[in-house]
Design brief:
By secondary structure, this protein is an alpha+beta fold. Helices cover 16% and strands 29% of the residues. It has one domain (19-206). It has helices at residues 3-11, 61-68, 107-114, 122-130, and strands spanning 12-18, 23-28, 33-38, 45-51, 78-80, 86-93, 144-146, 169-175, 179-185, 201-206. The protein binds zinc ion (ZN).
Length: 207
């Protein structure tokens, strides 16, 4: 038996391109790895995770920020649940700019901010994708935004600035518990969080 070949084929179990503006989800086991690649650059990816064994337990931004002692997610930062249990840990990051504050876009806030009605949004993407896992609109909580650039100044002012990710930049997360991972490839065209022109991303699950 060729152990190297076996190991190589056993490592990657799923590779998919998530089209521009679309959601995606998967169940991952403890020890699995999820790699998210910004194929074209400047594409925000809104992300939530839930305990696969008890989905009422989910990613909690406040616990993650408190325990990381930073508002920025990067290599070595663990995403914590509301029960302060480690859910997923960032093991690789070639971008260095990921947001915990801005949450997801919605058609409602697009109407308030930009005066446009019935736009595609991450909130609607989350709701439709999470329904596959029997999760409802009330489960759309403050999420991580991979590749999204939300600078905060010393006075506390925040903005949405152009993404710093280039083509091929990626983050990889290790599962600290079995999770349902849900993402929205952000369809926003009214601010620079997705370069004003949404593009596909790639997801790879390794186990
Ligand atoms: Zn969005």
């Amino acid at each position: 038996m060729d152990d190297d070949t076996t190991a190589a084929t056993a490592t990657e179990s799923r590779r998919e391109v998530v089209p521009a503006e679309r959601p995606w989800s998967a169940r991952l086991d403890k020890g699995d790895r999820l790699k998210i690649t910004d194929l074209h650059g400047a594409q925000a990816v809104d992300f939530l995770c839930f305990s696969a064994e008890m989905p009422v337990e989910r990613y909690n931004a406040a616990n993650t920020i408190k325990l990381a002692r930073t508002i920025y997610v990067g290599k070595g930062v663990t995403l914590y649940s509301e029960l302060a249990r480690p859910m997923m840990t960032v093991t690789a990051d070639t971008c260095g700019s990921h947001d915990t504050l801005a949450g997801c876009c919605s058609s409602q806030i697009n109407a308030v901010r930009y005066g446009v009605e019935n736009t595609p949004s991450c909130r609607d993407n989350f709701i439709s994708e999470m329904a596959r896992w029997c999760l409802g609109p009330g489960d759309v909580v403050a999420n991580v935004n991979f590749f999204m650039n939300v600078p905060v100044d010393g006075e506390g002012a925040i903005g949405i600035a152009p993404c710093l990710s280039g083509p091929g930049d990626y983050v990889e997360l290790h599962c600290d518990m079995p999770v349902i991972a849900v993402l929205s490839n952000c369809p926003q065209r009214h601010n620079p969080c997705s370069g004003c022109e949404p593009t596909p991303v790639e997801v790879v699950i390794s186990r």
